[in-house]
Amino acid sequence: MAHQSDLIAEDIHAYLKQQEEKSLLRFITCGSVDDGKSTLIGRLLWDSKMIFEDQLAALESDSKKCGTQGEKIDYALLLDGLQAEREQGITIDVAYRFFSTDKRKFIVADTPGHEQYTRNMVTGASSAQVAIILIDARKGVLTQTRRHSYLTSLVGIRHVVLAINKMDLVDYSRKQFETIRDEYGEFAEELGFASITAIPISALEGDNILQPSLNTEWYQGPTLMKYLETVEITDNAAQQPFRMRVQWVNRPNLDFRGFCGTIAAGKIRPGDEIVISASGKTSKVARIVTFDGDLPLAIAGQAVTLTLEDEIDISRGDLLATTESMPHQIDRFAAKLVWMHEDTLLPGRSYLLKAGSATTPAQVSELQYRVNVNNLQQESAKTLQLNEVGFCNISVNSEIGFDRYQTSPGTGSFILIDRLSHATVAAGMIEAPLQRATDSHWQSLDIDKQARAALKRQVPKLLWLTGLPGAGKSTVANLVEKKLHSLGKHTYILDGDNLRHNLNRDLGYEDTDQVEHIRRIAEVANILIEAGIIVIAPVISPFRNERQTVREIFEEGEFVEIYLDTPLEICEQRDTTGAYQKVRSGELSHIAGIDAAYEPPQNAEYRFDGSRSSAEEIAVKIVKELFEDSQQPEWEI
């Protein structure tokens, strides 16, 4: 529904044509909790005649049941649709609403103010052109105000309305308004906004929303609606070099092969030359196909299917670009990261990086610093917590085409996904490419793993023993090696505790250090496997994610996970290092099973109950099943 217009009744076609020709503005409301964001949008919808009669009746009823304004209409209930939102009086999800005036159409996103739901605010801001940042005139600039302002700047919004709300509760004080305006302006000076327009409002009473308020005669600026109707927004996406990431390869029959996607930047015509970023191969556009027929021109924001003049290998996730301005094809880059999950960031852990339809494993190789949202200072940090922002280096397992976020948000942004839970854990904006890891020369060698293994007459394997401290991992590993040695096998033990005295002496026991500890052991084990050695690695390795990452390094059958499922009380009784006692007394911390997590394997090749079987019995069974009874190849020397 749009604003009231006589054309609706007189000439519906003319009305629809008028609506089609209006410009569209996307904006968000953000700020701290209870600053009045939902009330403001509700007021805009109300004053713009955007409420149906049944909605009005429901609003009046809900205002009496769970409203916060006494006998008055609670406009916030128009947006707070979730039951939990109405009960708590806060916004949780992002609520999108459409409305229009004589001059413009609008899509507004009401984003949560509560810190717990900051990630939802980032989602709403990602497609907005203007941000209305609300501030409670009684409270002034708060931490969440600063956080939302920084995130608004981070996602590329350049026009901000500083809506200083609830002016009716401070007697429309000009001094209070100017104090808040000046404080915010000083804070936001480094955020790079193109414009900041401060407006004193009362969302509940309607002051300076549609009409100038008699209560603020000292204010000579625009009303909120006038600002929204007149603010000039320049969309540079169509002026950028052409970019489109392939979402789907459409092959309905042998005579048609099209590449579907939404144009992220630039424009394209039949006959234009394009390049596939991954392969560097070029071709020309034959047709631009849509449901409504072929187009002579397509621009940023349009979903199209391109056919090419040549048969070129193109897959889902590939980036199509113009030959005059190539994107970066990289496997390492620097990026700003907004952490959006309760589990902390663990540098070195393998996540899934998703950019458009392209997905690849990735690691945060280095967290350079964390941003303090209160003063925008850079702080040293080893990890990021929920809602924190950091600057980091990221490595991906396979090269992906990217642009800098400031140049092309559509091809310069990505998300990180947890590989086990598939939860989105972070949103990222690429700052700059880094030297590619693949730029260093790989020296080919004539003697390979198979030749080295044949000389030793054995099949190299990695026996990864995991379990709580004191589960018996090192004892079993030692017995297994002795038995293999007696069989003439070439072995080596990479004991997690021993390696902390040399290779990993710089690492502690925090989660971030545990991830790096496991990564280093896996890389050394890989070198030994290449040498044809049977490697035995007794390592606590508390996280499933890291154990899965280690597994993926090796070929099928090389990695054998052995879980010593020994009860905690038995482990504590066996402890010879005194670690458990030191944790209980507070001398040590981050010990798996006590004050740190241990995630038991779910699909280990072998599981042994250390309270029911002796270390000798476990070792015998491992050697028997893996080496004595297995079919060994006929070695040829």
How would you explain this protein's 3D organization?
The chain has 637 residues and is of the alpha/beta class. It contains 17 helices and 27 strands. The strands form 5 sheets. A 6-stranded mixed β-sheet has the order 2-3-1-4-5-6, sandwiched between helices. Strands 7-9-14-12-11-15 form a 6-stranded antiparallel beta barrel. Helix 11 packs across helix 17. About 2% of the residues have low confidence.
Blueprint of the fold:
Elements: H1 7-10, H2 12-21, E1 23-31, H3 37-47, H4 53-66, H5 83-88, E2 95-100, E3 104-110, H6 118-125, E4 130-136, H7 143-154, E5 159-165, H8 174-188, E6 195-200, H9 224-230, E7 243-245, E8 248-253, E9 256-265, E10 267-268, E11 273-276, E12 282-289, E13 298-299, E14 303-308, E15 319-322, E16 328-339, E17 350-355, E18 358-371, E19 378-379, E20 389-402, E21 413-417, E22 424-433, H10 449-456, E23 462-466, H11 473-486, E24 491-493, H12 496-499, H13 511-530, E25 534-538, H14 544-553, E26 559-564, H15 568-574, H16 579-585, E27 606-608, H17 615-628
Parallel strand pairs: 1-3, 1-4, 4-5, 5-6, 23-25, 23-26, 24-25, 26-27
Antiparallel strand pairs: 2-3, 7-9, 7-15, 8-9, 9-14, 10-13, 11-12, 11-15, 12-14, 16-20, 16-22, 17-18, 17-21, 18-19, 18-20, 21-22
Helix pairs in contact: 11-17, 13-14
Q: What is the class of the largest domain in the CATH system?
A: Alpha Beta
Task: Report how far the terminal alpha carbons are from each other.
Answer: 82 Å
Q: Please give the number of β-strands.
A: 27
Overall outline: globular
Largest sheet: 6 strands, mixed
The structural class is alpha/beta
Structural domain tally: 4
Look at the structure and name the CATH superfamily of the largest domain.
P-loop containing nucleotide triphosphate hydrolases
